[in-house]
Design brief:
It is a single chain. The protein is an all-alpha fold and 84 residues long. It has a domain at 10-42. 36% of the residues lie in helices and 0% in strands. The chain contains three helices and no strands. It is flat and about 55 Å long. The N and C termini lie far apart (56 Å). This is Ferredoxin.
């Protein structure tokens, strides 16, 4: 009878636990550390620059609009491809 190797080494487990702890400390809205973005001293400390357009998402949304009346339109899977 052989003993199988564990899928995760102790180091792998430690890294994953550290990642889980890090993610648990992030703001669900902006994904920055809560200790920074929710700090009362941070009030007024952020600016919002002009948006950047994602042209892939623009093309995707335009294509999806053509299928809004299609049966089960939410089940249609779309993707974008960069023109060569």
């Amino acid at each position: 009878m052989s003993t199988p190797e564990p899928e995760w080494s102790e180091e792998d487990q430690a890294w994953m636990l550290a990642l889980a702890e890090y993610r648990a400390g992030l703001c669900p809205a902006c994904r920055r550390p809560l200790r920074e973005c929710a700090d009362p001293d941070a009030d007024g400390g952020y600016t919002v620059p002009s948006p950047t357009r994602c042209h892939a998402t623009t093309a995707l949304l335009i294509a999806q609009e053509q299928y809004t009346e299609s049966p089960q339109a939410g089940a249609l899977l779309f993707h974008t491809e960069r023109r060569g």
